[in-house]
Design a protein that fits this description.
Strand content: 25-35%
Structural class: alpha+beta
Number of strands: 18
Largest sheet: 7 strands, mixed
């Protein structure tokens, strides 16, 4: 072989190696959850306790304030997950939503209008009428089924009888012959195809800590058990089922509802087959938070995923990493609550008392 031909052969081989050694490219989707904190319209609903969020109510909730709240939330939703993903979240779970109408107003905001979000929503039995819901980009996610699954909890089975009814501020007690059922938010289960790949999603807003964390813990443990039951049933149908459960759990990653009832693990190598992984426990270990109370931070807002999402093969959608979206404009800059999430007050229409959370799902491009 001549020196010239050898030279050209070497150049061709080098070009091939360089082209095949370049970094792999991935399709990326952001999945987010946000507690919208009292996303109420201004219309009084006689069947729920929404009087506070009306023009004549305690919050003096006017049309102008409502429209500003929508604008604020739309800005946040359009930016979650950036800069790693320049597209807005493909899937957004939300809580503290009064009705479908407020969601329709939300997705019509200029920051979201061109994204073309679909809505999945059911009215819940919560006495204030606040619900959970899912927004999804129609061009990427196609829902095939969805249902609201009730959480059955009973006062005399879970909390000491001396606890008073008024201790429960956002659930309602209903007396029957043998027990007192407490109505809370349903768990919203959605199945659909993300760019042709089936995934399942549970959107949650677990019972509050009213009456005290310890006394109310059995309610949230029951919510965790229901989540686990849903996951088990889907995995019996398909052992490789991919599921994300997200929401405001009113408990942190270390509480029994998450660690024991749901069985979430902090490290990928601890997750057994059919188990679940909680990427937000590591953040909690570092002192990060989504909500603050008395200068103490906790992560009530979490997205927890099944073991099928953390396998090393990226030929299908897998978990990449998680985050808390806490841009400076979402943070109170002065006063008693400096550093806290910038929430609504009588003098200022803020965002929420929670920071949103998100995970990235990625798949290697052919």
């Amino acid at each position: 072989m001549s020196i010239l031909r050898l030279y050209f052969y070497f150049i061709a081989l080098l070009s091939f190696l360089i082209s095949n050694g370049q970094s792999k490219k991935y399709t990326i989707h952001t999945v987010a959850f946000y507690n919208f904190e009292n996303l109420f319209d201004t219309i009084n609903n006689p069947t729920t306790h929404d009087d506070e969020w009306t023009p004549n109510g305690a919050q003096h909730w006017t049309k102008e304030k409502y429209e500003q709240k929508l604008k604020n939330l739309a800005k946040v939703l359009s930016e979650i997950g950036t800069p790693e993903n320049t597209n807005a979240p493909t899937i957004i779970g939300g809580s503290e939503i009064e009705n479908r109408g407020v969601l329709e107003d939300l997705i019509k905001q200029p920051a979201l209008l061109n994204i073309d979000y679909g809505i999945i929503h059911f009215d819940s039995p919560d006495k204030r009428g606040i619900d959970v819901a899912l927004l999804y980009q129609k061009k990427y996610f196609r829902p095939t089924s969805f249902s609201n699954i009730p959480l059955y909890i009973y006062k005399n089975n879970a909390i000491a009888n001396e606890q008073k009814k008024e201790d429960i501020d956002d659930e309602v007690e209903v007396k029957t012959e043998n027990n007192n059922r407490i109505f809370t938010r349903d768990q919203l289960l959605i199945t659909g195809f993300l760019e042709g790949e089936e995934i399942h999603i549970i959107v949650n807003h677990w019972p509050s800590r009213s009456g005290g964390e310890k006394k109310s813990s059995p309610f949230r443990e029951a919510a965790g058990n229901l989540n686990r039951k849903i996951i088990d049933s889907l995995q019996k149908i398909n052992p490789n089922a991919k599921l994300l459960t997200m929401g405001d759990l009113n408990d942190g990653p270390f509480n029994r509802s998450v660690k024991v009832a749901l069985g979430a693990k902090a490290k990928k190598n601890e997750v057994a087959e059919f188990g679940v992984f909680n990427p937000f426990e590591e953040m909690a270990n570092k002192g990060m938070g989504t909500i603050a109370f008395r200068d103490s931070w906790d992560i009530f807002d979490q997205i927890i995923i099944t073991e099928s999402f953390i396998k090393p093969d990226f030929s299908t959608f897998k978990f990449w990493k998680a985050g808390i979206f806490s841009k400076p404009y979402l943070i109170q800059t002065s006063g008693q609550y400096k550093g806290y999430p910038l929430r609504h007050t009588l003098t200022e229409v803020g965002f929420s008392d929670h920071f949103p959370v998100y995970v990235y799902l990625i798949k290697e491009k052919p």
